[in-house]
Inverse folding.
DNA sequence: TGATGCATGTAATCCGTTACATGATTCA
DNA sequence: TGAATCATGTAACGGATTACATGCATCA
């Protein structure tokens, strides 16, 4: 499966028609957010392309007080293409973490910087958790939303728990060091 | 912090001198493996560049029965550059998962494909866990190895647990459906 | 004899991000 | 008045992957 922006757009549009702008918001705030990224620079060209291939339909919607928008909807052909795209064993998850890189090389970091990094990570994780909780409350058109939410919640919660332990340990060490 | 291949190479080399080939192996099999990726096509040019800037030293090592190798070691200047690189709040973790994408869109997947995907994921996760366990047993030059290993283990274990639950649920449903 | 591991490197290509361009409306 | 939200799009640029090129040793 080539999980590129094309496939992503098709996937988002299975939940209902949307404009490029709304798709971006969906990716940032919705269920997709914690395992995918995409910018306008890739979404808009992808939509134009998909519509040209008949996988999407376009409709211009005039709005008062706001710019017009192009509302895209997935076609039968588009659904078929999506199904074909995901009918393959998924590629291995890709996880990139500057945070863990820093933690591994903590001898090159001051205790303050390390603490700041841990706090930031904790903040990010809690933000993700809140987002998932929010998604699951709102109407979810996807059958798999429960699956993804449970998976995400479990993983993020585990991360928060270890981090809190590590942070406490760190604080004990640094205060002990400061008392010397 | 720009966690590019340059910084990554510097980081790996703090554990001791190594050739490009060995760095790649380290990234694949060592502590770095579960939160970073890099290919030869990016490692070799990066090493040449870093050596040119005086952040690394090179030494050609002749080997019998094997091709010669270029052994790189980090310099004081290199350590300083590394420290400078990581002396910034880390960027948000990036996580891409075709697996979760498929699970979210499970209505476009057959139960068999879904089960296959779950099994593959479970396999990948268990592989990662085994790798972490292996790393921690072998001599670890990094202070932060414990931190990273604990974090990784917690997260991966949580993922395995949810997945096993989900899989059991899935099997119940599919066998019930088959019995109809 | 054919795959796999060791070992290095380059060029083509891809896929995406960032920055730029444009413009109205609303809220502080 | 300045920032933020809504809205679409393009062009430049970057960073890495993939594929290719080379070659010897070992193991099945």
């Amino acid at each position: 499966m080539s999980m590129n922006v094309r496939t992503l757009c098709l996937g988002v549009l299975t939940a209902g028609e949307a404009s490029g702008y709304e798709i971006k918001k969906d990716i940032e705030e919705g269920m997709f957010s914690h395992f995918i990224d995409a910018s306008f620079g890739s979404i808009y060209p992808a939509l134009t392309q998909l519509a040209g291939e008949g996988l999407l339909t376009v409709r211009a919607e005039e709005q008062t007080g706001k710019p017009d928008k192009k509302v895209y909807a997935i076609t039968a052909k588009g659904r078929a293409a999506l199904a074909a795209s995901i009918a393959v064993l998924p590629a291995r998850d890709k996880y990139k973490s500057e945070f863990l890189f820093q933690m591994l090389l903590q001898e090159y970091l001051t205790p303050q910087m390390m603490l700041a990094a841990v706090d930031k990570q904790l903040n990010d994780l809690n933000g993700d958790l809140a987002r998932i909780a929010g998604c699951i409350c709102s109407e979810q058109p996807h059958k798999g939303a429960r699956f993804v939410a449970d998976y995400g919640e479990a993983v993020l919660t585990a991360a928060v728990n270890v981090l809190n332990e590590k942070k406490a340990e760190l604080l004990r060490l640094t205060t002990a060091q400061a008392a010397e």
In short: Chain B has a mean pLDDT of 93. The beta strands of chain B are 56-61, 69-74, 94-96.
